[in-house]
Amino acid sequence: MLVEGQPGAPEEFSVTLCKLTPPLDQMFLDPHTELIDGINACRIYLGTYVAYIKLDKRPTPPPFGQLILRPDSMLKIVARDMRESRAEMKVMHTILHSPQNALRWQAKKAT
Description:
By secondary structure, the chain is α+β, with helices and mostly antiparallel strands. Helices cover 21% and strands 26% of the residues.
């Protein structure tokens, strides 16, 4: 499909964009796979945006189905405050409090 230059239907690899809000709007994390309502997806960080790409043949679960990128359609972007997500905050806490990052933070504060 992609090798042939054909993007396929929007539902095949549906993409939903989210805009991160401050103060966590400048984080860059590695892309990773996850389950969203039981559907396989990949999360890719793009500066202040996150792209959620469906990797599954099953339909995109609501409400994402109404928000996916479609040709000749208005672009819909969800504003997302990462502080309101327990899972996101747990990941950020782990990153910030890992031994190597804690040492870097202390050294930066000392200068």
